[in-house]
User: Fold these one by one.
Assistant:
Number 1:
Amino acid sequence: MSAEKGRVEPAPDAFAFGENWQRYITEYVTPERERIAADSLVDLLEVDLAGKTFLDVGCGSGLFSLAAHRAGARQVISIDIDQDSVAATETLRRRSHASQNWRVIHGSILDQALLDQLPIADVVYSWGVLHHTGEMETAIRNASRLVAEGGLFCIAIYNRVTDRYLNSERWRRIKRRYNQSGRLAQVAMEWLYTLYWAAAEVARRRNNPLRTARDYKTRRGMALRTDLVDWLGGYPYEFATAEEVVRFCEDECGLAKRKVVSVGPRDLGNNEFLFERPV
């Protein structure tokens, strides 16, 4: 089954997330990383996916859709606005010999027509995605509408940081500059950022960067090189404190908080959230 198609309107200066994910599944995906990703999904959701409908909004590589499929989800629906991400997910779907219970859709969570066509899901999962839509609050609200009563809404959103030099607002400008630059300038920025990351590992954490790179797969099965480029290029880019996300999801989306896994107040990474739609 080929990927289904919805209306797609990516931002004109958006980062090519799909190209990055294509490299990831080509160079890094292994059975070990697949297992690590599946374990991280179970740890975060704290629920058995067998027999449930799993909606993956911004599926990226398709790795977590694959994990849900293998966990016995009754139906998996993977959506992404980036055609290369759709192709990456299709690759994993074909490798898994999935039947008709795994659909891959090229579309946007901001597309009202697509929303009206999607089923209500037991689990709506969108890890590190909705802050890249350019309309984060609308994206969160739209995705939350698809959660069934008693169902789960799992998202990860970049933390808002104000009290350091490279704060959230400065990183927004860096990311925009990266995406507006030619490829040679982008490569130079990637190398500079890699050196910056390595120096920060040594200075802040007293870590050996090579050891960190080797062990990086323990973080949801990800690869360091993929994540460094994803962070530098990840634009559009929005952010919020954990408290802001919880307040919005409870007050504006009618959800109830089940769990928050927060990063430090000066950490630019993702806060993770698990909400439930009250019955």
Number 2:
Amino acid sequence: MAMTWPTPVSLWQPEGAFGPSAVVFPDRFPWTDMNWKGVRPADLVFYEIHVGTFTPEGTFEALIGVFPSWLSLGSRPSRSCPSASFPAIAAGAMTACFHTPFRIRMGAPRGLQSLTDACHGQGLAIFLDVVYNHFGPEGNVFADFGP
């Protein structure tokens, strides 16, 4: 039986960290944030969230409904805890696919795009916590592609 490995730079793993990679065209998203200029460093007040547990749905798109709360706290950017794909539900910091959202809980790339676009529309920046040093023992296939 042939093994299926994700592409190391995959943007979407619809079947999870061990499934085949899917093609994503980020430029086909209907962005509305063309006037987004960012947030001045002096105005950065971070509000850290974990996408999978912050709302009952645990998805990127469900976070859009909590913007009034963030704005009332004076928060301008939000920082998402790691949201990349990993093989096991309980091991969120043990990333297998750095560039893909964790499909089981958080949603597809389009959900992350929707969240980013909506954040920018409200004057909020979004920062993703990428943990490049957190390779898990399961699903780490980078060595199979080269030294």
Number 3:
Amino acid sequence: MAVKERDEVKGASRRDSDEMAQTRTFFRAVPVFDRAQVTAGEKALPLEPPRAPLTGDSHAHLLNPLRAFAETLGYTVAFEEIPGEAGGWCDARRRRIVVGTDAPANAQVRILVHELAHALGVDYQRYSRHQAEVIVDTVTYIVTGSAGLDVAGETIPYIAGWGEDGALDAVNEFAATIDTIARQLETAITADEQAHAETERQAVAV
């Protein structure tokens, strides 16, 4: 659910308040069918959600502020070639985050946000692995969405894959944790995103 948060500004009209309102993303539980309740027909489509890998570099400018935020946590960020399917990882013991160089910039942004959510305390000691992955990619969806980067094609099948056997309950059970971490990461990139938007507006004006 996309919800606008309005701050009352003295002397501002309702229209101005609407324009200044920030849009935040929240989740709510709804009833759905489990695959065990469904009998597939002859022409049934696959039940697995389709995956749409991220492309492009429209949000490459977010990599630097995200890296700077990692440094405030005592982490270093390295961009390296990673064999296999893993796009990156967070090594809490060595305080190091690695992002794969084979991915396009927009995918690197998603990976870095995901790993930073791990760095902010969503580990496999405090949570089960399934819970942790559902939590951090829900955070990733919220944060990237607030910056205008649609990662649904990656996040929805990823969360669905980790969310079997009740792990999706983590979205509700740890909603406060998800929101707190998302706000921290949003704050880290907001100033840079605003500066980037202003630069684009000036370029269009010229």
